[in-house]
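hey m, so remember when u said the C-alpha cells were messed up on ur end? i reran from scratch. heres the input so u can diff it against urs
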Amino acid sequence: MKILIDNGHGVDTSGKRSPDGTLKEYAYTREIAKRVVEALNREGYDAERIVTEENDISLRERCARVNTICRKLGTKNVLLVSIHNNAAGSGGQWLTARGFSAHVSMNASSRSKILAKCLWKEAIKLGLKGNRSVPSEYYITQNLAMCRDTLCAAVLTENLFYDNKEDLEFLLSEKGKSAVTALHVEGIKSFIKSVS
C-alpha cells in the first residue's frame, strides 16, 4: 500500500496561525507529516509526502500528484491523509473548541470512511477527543477538494485547535507532536490491516 501524506497549506497562505503567532499551520503540519512518513518508513511501509515545497501548492496540483500515483499503482493500492490544524475562529482570539476530527468528502468511498474511523479511534485512545461530540460514524462529511478530487481512500485530519490555549500548548510540546504523529501512524496501520 502506497501511503501519501499531504501537509496542507504553504508559507504564503494568509492566516492559519495561533492568535499569539507561536504556531503556524504550514510549518507545524510539515513537521508532523515528515515525522509520520519517517515513522512509517522505519516500520517498512511505503510512505511519502506529496508536497515537499514550503510554498502553497494549489489544491489542483496536489490532487493531480495523488491521482498520478493512483493511476500508476491502482486506486486500491493508495491512501491519502491530508494533515491540518483546526481553528474555531479567524485566528484573532482564544476560543474554547478542542480536539481532533477526521473529514471525508461528500462522495467518500467506504474505504475513506474506514480510514477516517481508524484515525479517529486512535485519537480517542490517545486522549485527543476534545470537548466536542464524536459522530457515530467517526467522520465528518464536507466538500473538501483533497478528499473529493482524489481517486484513492482519502481523509483530511484536523489536529486540535490552535486558537485554544490548552490545545496549542499540547500541540507545541514534544508529547503533543509525538501523540499527533502516533495517531496518524497507528490509524493508517489499522486501516491497512482492516482492508488487507
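this time it looks ok to me. The beta strands are 2-6, 46-49, 78-86, 100-105, 140-142, 153-161. if urs says something different then somethings off w ur setup not the seq
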